[in-house]
Amino acid sequence: MAFPGLAQGAGSGGFALDLAVETSVDVRSNPQLDMVNPQRVDEISSAFSFGFLTETRSQKLSFGGGISLRGSDGPGGGGVANGVVDPFLALRYLRQVRDASLSFDVRVQETDLTQTDPGEFGATIQTGSAKRRSYSAEISVRWRETAPLGFGVLAGFQKAAFIDGSAFGQGGQALSGTTRHRFDFLARLDLDAAHHLTTTLGYRVFRQEAVAGRRESFQLNSVYQIDRPRGPFAIKLEYVMTEAGHQLSGLVDRHWALPRGAGRAGIGAARATTGGRYVTGHLHYETAFSRGLFDASVNRKLTSSDQDDSEQISMAMGLQYRIDATPLDGFAVGIDWAEAKNTQSGLTTMNRVLAISYTRQMGREVDFNIGLRRRDVRDSVTGARQSNEIFMSLTRKFSTHF
């Protein structure tokens, strides 16, 4: 569950406290995406979350967290953790002084791999009976933000570990814990009021518990942006030097502000460390109408795997449509598809999710939601797997500002 209060403001001063309780019932046919022995799991849970926010003209501090109580049954219920599960905490701090700013973010979270969040959609997903425990922290300092020439420094840390079970990734490979460090130095030059040049020099370090040593990479990217009345136009260039070779990519990007929505399109090319050349790009359109919204997107890019840092070319498409039948009732349909191919081994993984839901607003801060979700996963080693889910939830929110 997301933090109920971290995204809301308290004005130019004061405090805001948001609480949320979500009780849900889920029936899943194969939550572990097991090919050999798929088993149904019946779950009932109550998730509690809170968000606290305080801000002044120059500072903002937010703190949130949550925990769930879960019970499971069914043939596969023994493979799901019960009791107090899925704890998380997050802290965010922002300070703005004249033309300089400081921001700090830290997050700790533990999640069962069987509880895959559809919002964290991607081509390569982690499966199995383990829990994923993650830690992350990031600090950013920027100065001369209102001057023609400005600078910034960002440092970040991410750590993931798998406990109390087994975890599998692309091709059924066993997963082990990973650690990532990043450091970026940024320089921004405003040529005039509408033309901007931003250059970032970055350093990355990746470690995997089951593999000796570490992987280092250096990145240099530049963005030349032209502000236009209906949206910015940008040219992006990036060079990445890794131990396996170098990557080179370029992209032309355009935003449009439309009468009833917004659009974005980009086209580019990339050269992989293997020497392969790929067409990259993206297309996104969203619009809101009197009784609903529509969102469609497609993108193709050269990136690194979250699981083992290997190079892959990935493509994703998404379609979201929501219609409000009445001021209190709404229906939503979502389709997501993603595919990733390892540029060296050729291993290909596909992930597809179809979700249909109905929402009823039962009070000012009470929502009822029911729906079904189907997930299909396939890769060139382990084959195809499916999971079906029927879910129902009731959410109650409490908000106070002072």
Q: What does this protein look like?
A:
This protein has 402 residues and is mostly beta strands. The protein is 0% helix and 71% strand. It has strands at 15-28, 41-55, 59-73, 83-97, 100-112, 127-128, 131-143, 149-163, 167-168, 178-190, 195-208, 211-226, 233-242, 245-258, 261-271, 277-289, 292-304, 311-324, 329-342, 348-363, 366-379, 383-401. The strands form 2 sheets. It has a 20-stranded antiparallel beta barrel. The protein has a two-stranded antiparallel ribbon with strand order 6-9. Mean pLDDT is 88; it is low at 1-11.
What are the defining features of this structure?
mainly beta; 20-stranded antiparallel beta barrel; globular; two-stranded antiparallel sheet; disordered N terminus; 402 residues; 22 strands; 0% helix
In short:
This protein has 402 residues and is mainly beta. The chain is built from no helices and 22 strands. The protein has a 20-stranded antiparallel beta barrel. Strands 6-9 form a two-stranded antiparallel sheet.
Number of helices: 0
Mean pLDDT: 88
Please describe the biggest sheet, giving its number of strands, its sense, and whether it closes into a barrel. Answer: 20 strands, antiparallel, barrel
Based on helices, strands and strand pairing, what is the structural class? mainly beta
Distance between the termini: 25 Å
Q: Work out the strand percent.
A: over 45%
Low-confidence segments, ≥5 residues, pLDDT <50?
1-11
Q: What is the succession of H and E elements?
A: EEEEEEEEEEEEEEEEEEEEEE
Radius of gyration (CA) equals 23 Å
